[in-house]
Amino acid sequence: MMLRRSAVIVAVAAAGLLLAGCSGPGASTGSGGASGGASALPANCKSDKPTLAVSLPNTVNPYYVAMRQSFIDNGAKAGFTVKVAIANDSDSSQLAQVQSFIQQNVCVVALNPVTSGPGAAEVNLLTKAHIPVFTVNIDADRDQVKSGGGSIVEYVGADQKEGGKVMADAALEDLGSKPAVVGIAGEPNETVTVDRDKAFEAEITAKSSTSKVVASVDTKVDPQVSLQVVTEMLQGHPEINTVFADTGPAAVGSIQAIKQLGLSGKVTLYAFCAANTKLDSVLYRGCAAQQPSLYAQIVADNAAKFIKGETVPEMVFQPVKVFTEGQQPAEDELG
Amino acid sequence: MNLRRFRWPDETGIFVVLLIVLGVFAALSESFRSASNGGILLLNGSVVGFLALGQTFVLLTGGIDLSTGAMIATTGVLAPIMLKAGIPWPIAALLTLGIGAGAGAISGIVVHYVKVPPFIATFAAQGVLSSIPLIITGANSVTVTDQGFAFIGQGYLAGIPVPVVLLILAAILGALFLRWTKAGVHLYAVGGNRAAARLAGVNIARTTILAYALSGMCGAFGGLIATSRLMVGFPNTGLGNELFFSIAAAVVGGVSLFGGIGSIPGAMIGAVLIATVSDGMNVTNVNSYWQPLVIGVIILLGVAIDTYRRSRRGNPIRLSRWNAIRSGRRAAVGTPAKS
């Protein structure tokens, strides 16, 4: 009796799954295209105060704190109601938040993906819902967006590669005829930081044949971890004369690591700028800063233009700001 | 001396693993063999060492403390805020330790009186403690204004880094506390057999709260050291691998996740093992993508070898210290008490 009942339950479940499978993806497949004219935009865009929905990875990094505030301030100035969702560095949370935006039928989404790959899935979902997407800081994987039928109205962010390149140039200039022996205090799990590292290495080896990167450590964008791993890297490679830190928190840890090993004057740091830290002539000699507040402002302004039917550029690469000896980046100029 | 009757300490197995790992890295890198690297290794391992020490007290009672990493974040920010308010650094440091102990005690109270499982209670505490510094600072760093505070994380005593000295002292005091005091013995008792401990007169409430308070205080030590080394309080410091490493260090060192078994020397060997692996891989420039894998495999091998060694000896799970003590030191336990 029990067996027969189980068999019936299994059969019903299987039939249900089969039906669900038949009516699933096929029914929802639609042509993308968020870059169309005003007629293709969500109804919310025609309201007095359309909604600009913003999805950011976290608010534990001062970079995103500044970006969030700028979206709120500049979004309101541009005539939007601004909704901000924080993904706590979870791709799945961000996906759920984007799905919630679709349910709320928001006008436009500004997306700073946690990571590029899953970001493409979010872009594709929004495109299918005819909600225009702007990406900021970290771009969604363009190949996946293309293959998924999605589209991105505009990307706004720093030219990460230029940041690495200018820091490499600064290091070589300060070293003069001496070769740079480099240790990288990096974040190997993010495309933007990997781009910075690669650009730094490419520039330094292209401009000086005797210069090279001899070690790389994972700072996890945490100053305490950075302090630990950079001390260990410098222990293992006493020949290092240049450290490149690809984030602000990594720069903070690197400064302390060099100081505490008594290597000031022997090892020089070039970095993406640490918050509230002045540059000097001995240890911390150069940094490149991004301007998250500015990127958010550009997105808010261009989103307002876009829903009015104006054309906006597909890519906005803002140059990094470079700081040298004696200078200190402002509060919203961060690495 | 009758060698047949000689009983190797339980920590021998993991100590041998540590020696092997040290030997491998020393063979691979000249830099690793240097005395200065030894100092750096211990200095960098001091925060995880403190967390492992605190975790040991809690694990011995059969609990677990998932809030230790977040405790670093909270106390690491509170200390520089107190310094900014003009409080002298030694007092600020003591207040920070008190706050850590107090926050830990709250977890203990929730575990004992509200009957919330330790995993959930301390997970909730982790959420609270990781949010507090963000709320206070708005995710911005807090610069340390009193240069004297650097002594905790950057000072040296007799050529040894102060954090290492503090950890050694704390470990010795902790080991003596567990071995020679009634309250210490009660920690084993509660974790070994809670019902029997209660019947034997152990004050379960006081013992549980004490364990979590000690863990909280150890977390606060971690926060003080981290902030003092950087001279900046970061609201998200300590929220990475620190918690995992603290539990791993204690367990690798022979502390049972089920309570009643383990020792502080074992946990400290576990902490040094993890610090050694981490240091060795960075010194020898192992790709960062491989590092968690290598650490995981070494931890697994360490525990497996140790377990095998114990099972060969016919004592796979060592009878708890409580059992030994119960037979020899009944008088110290006292009369049944309310819990």
Automatic annotation (TrEMBL), chain A:
Q: Which UniProt keywords apply?
A: Signal
- Could you tell me what this protein is called? Sugar ABC transporter substrate-binding protein
Which organism was this protein described from?
Answer: Galbitalea soli
Q: Which PANTHER family match?
A: D-ALLOSE-BINDING PERIPLASMIC PROTEIN-RELATED (PTHR46847), GALACTOFURANOSE-BINDING PROTEIN YTFQ (PTHR46847:SF3)
A single GO cellular-component term on record:
cell envelope
Superkingdom: Bacteria
Family statement drawn from the similarity comment of this UniProt entry: Belongs to the bacterial solute-binding protein 2 family.
Stretch forming the signal peptide: 1-20
**Origin organism lineage:** Bacteria, Bacillati, Actinomycetota, Actinomycetes, Micrococcales
Record-annotated Periplasmic binding protein domain positions: 53-310
Location comes to: Cell envelope
Molecular function as annotated in GO: carbohydrate binding
Recorded hits in SUPFAM superfamilies, A to Z, give: Periplasmic binding protein-like I (SSF53822)
InterPro entries in UniProt: Peripla_BP_I, SBP_2_dom
Q: Name one Pfam family in it.
A: Peripla_BP_4
